[in-house]
Amino acid sequence: MQIDPASDRPPFEQVRVGIIDLIESGELLSGERLPTVRALASRLGVAANTVARSYRELEAAGVIETRGRQGSFIKAGRHDALDAGFAAAKQYVETARELGLDDSVIVEILNRALGRT
């Protein structure tokens, strides 16, 4: 996502539409965590208030949800199979971590399951 300073559309609107476009393309899935307001603002070269406004509008529209200190997450998705797959992968990672496996082992197990090793 990029902000076009020459656009007729204000930056907060470009961010809002950009996030919706990423959801519709399947690049952002239901349950996926968004960058913090400050991180996204820094990445896009805009003020934190610009991103905060976009997030507020997306939350009011039911597209994202904010979970306090945990951050903001995609609430509404467009790709049922991808969303379900992402949810299953998140559950697998949580279970594997509860079993005491570190991330490198989790990735190795996934690679083996995919037949890559």
TrEMBL record:
Q: Which domain of life is it from?
A: Bacteria
Show the PROSITE patterns listed in the entry.
HTH_GNTR
Sorted UniProt keywords:
DNA-binding, Transcription, Transcription regulation
Tell me where in this chain the HTH gntR-type domain is found: 9-77
User: Pfam families this protein is in?
Assistant: GntR
Q: Which PANTHER family match?
A: HTH-TYPE TRANSCRIPTIONAL REPRESSOR YTRA (PTHR38445)
Tell me the protein's name.
GntR family transcriptional regulator
Q: What is the lineage of its organism?
A: Bacteria, Bacillati, Actinomycetota, Actinomycetes, Mycobacteriales
